[in-house]
Write a structure and sequence with these properties.
By secondary structure, this protein is of the alpha+beta class. It folds into two domains: 91 residues, Pseudouridine synthase, CATH 3.30.2350.10; 132 residues, Pseudouridine synthase. Helices cover 25% and strands 35% of the residues. The longest helix has 12 residues. The protein is elongated and about 55 Å long.
């Protein structure tokens, strides 16, 4: 098999639900004999969408690419709160949903737009003294976390059919969408959690230009090379 360590740049992958972001990187490394590879911006295992994979010299641009703004779409479920703020967590509260309409959801969501300090959820990969929070959460330990500044450009809902509502969020890096969903549920008085999430945009890159994980792993050597965005193109501002 050809050695692809000479490839420098990035691949746009449409991550499926299930594997971790690291699983995607490992599969690409193993399939194409690439030693130097990484990803820009972790997606939770159950989340789908745009995952930027950097190769060779492209790994030097990881921080730059991760710092770009993001766009997400997804679905929330009203009336249920979980400990992780998403569908993977344990149910901690179930409350009746008040008689609200799509307009009410959008009015409440609009209050989250702009600068704000956001507290990372306990079930997250943020590290405290070198230990990921989710590992502490599994042991029933809750620790003090540092809030960080984020900016929400837009937070809107397009459809609502009790108990599910579909949304779109444009935000800065490091924003926990499930926290925004949880906080919206608290404001509505009935609770909510993230039911599904998809990243559609990261900086200048769009998921419509990405290849599915299944198709990528079937690529020939020449097809893979055609898919790689060159290092110089990544490094050049638009």
């Amino acid at each position: 098999m050809q050695d692809f360590d000479s490839l420098d740049g990035a691949l746009l992958v449409d991550k499926p639900s299930g594997p971790t972001s690291h699983d995607v990187v490992d599969a690409i490394r193993d399939t194409f004999n690439i030693k130097k590879a990484g990803h820009c911006g972790t997606l939770d295992p159950n989340a789908t969408g745009l995952l930027i994979i950097v190769l060779g010299k492209g790994t030097k641009l990881s921080e730059k690419l991760m710092s770009d703004d993001k766009v997400y779409t997804g679905v929330i479920k009203l009336g249920e709160t979980t400990d992780s703020y998403d569908v993977e967590g344990e149910l901690v509260a179930s409350l009746p949903v008040p008689p609200i309409m799509l307009e009410d959801l959008n009015q409440t969501a609009a209050t989250f737009q702009g600068d704000q300090m956001q507290m990372p959820p306990m079930v997250s990969a943020v590290k405290v003294k070198g230990v990921p929070l989710y590992k502490m959460a599994r042991k029933g330990v809750e620790v003090e976390r540092k809030a960080r500044l984020i900016h929400v450009y837009s937070y809107t809902f397009s459809t609502y059919e009790l108990p599910y509502a579909r949304f779109r969020i444009a935000c800065t890096k490091g924003t926990y969408v499930r926290s925004l969903v949880h906080d919206l549920g608290q404001k509505l008085g009935c609770g909510a959690h993230l039911h599904a999430l998809r990243r559609t945009v990261s900086g200048k890159f769009d998921v419509k230009d990405a290849i599915t994980m299944e198709d990528l792993l079937k690529c020939s050597n020449s097809d893979l090379e055609k898919r790689v965005i060159p290092f110089l193109k990544l490094a050049t501002p638009t």
